[in-house]
Amino acid sequence: MTVPAFCAIMYWFKRDLFSFALSGIWFFQNFHSIARYMADARALKLPLLFGTKHDWNGIFGHFGLLEYDVRIAYFVNITGIAGLVFVTSWFVWRWYEDNVAAVRETKSELNGAGEVTAPAARAYFPPTMSATETPAPPADPAPPKAHQPSRPPSEAENNGTGNEKSPPSGPADTDYSI
């Protein structure tokens, strides 16, 4: 259950609706298997994968809950089913809201009905930026120094001397246009 919970948390912060929902379904699906072994704590009839000690028998026995193993397992199973229904319903609702709202807004913009607004900027989670706000452009690198050509000077820029390594005689003789 740790891996599905970790994945769900990770996808929540990445704002990835589909992956978050799948991780939630994966998490709650595990409740059914866990409840099955919980209910077997007293009977000890299910085969164990590793070792010969039944974990839930030891846990419930330690806390004095061994006689309630079936009731606890029933509660865990119902919690898993409720979690599966909730996550699936939430995913379908968010998908419907995001897609149908975008289609409605697109149709209203095309038909000219109502006020034309920015496209639906509904995020799957609370947005960090409003729908009309645009991200700032990345910072430009340091501006080039003044009067430095981006290419080596041509023969004409070197006063026709043919010596391409000689600098221009002055700012008036230098043409930096392309």
Structure description:
With 178 residues, the chain is mainly alpha-helical. It has a domain of 110 residues. The chain is 49% helix and 0% strand. It is built from four helices and no strands. α1 packs antiparallel against α2 and α2 packs antiparallel against α4. 9% of the residues are buried. About 8% of the residues have low confidence.
Q: Shape from CA axes?
A: elongated
Query: How much beta, percentage-wise?
Result: under 5%
Instruction: Give the distance, in angstroms, between the N- and C-terminal Cα atoms.
Output: 65 Å
Biggest pleated-sheet summary = none
Helix content: 40-55%
The overall strand count is: 0
Order of helices and strands: HHHH
Highlighted features:
178 residues, mainly alpha
Q: Strands, helices and their partners?
A:
Blueprint: H1 2-14, H2 17-39, H3 55-63, H4 69-111
Entry summary:
This protein has 178 residues and is an all-alpha fold. The protein is 49% helix and 0% strand. It contains four helices and no strands.
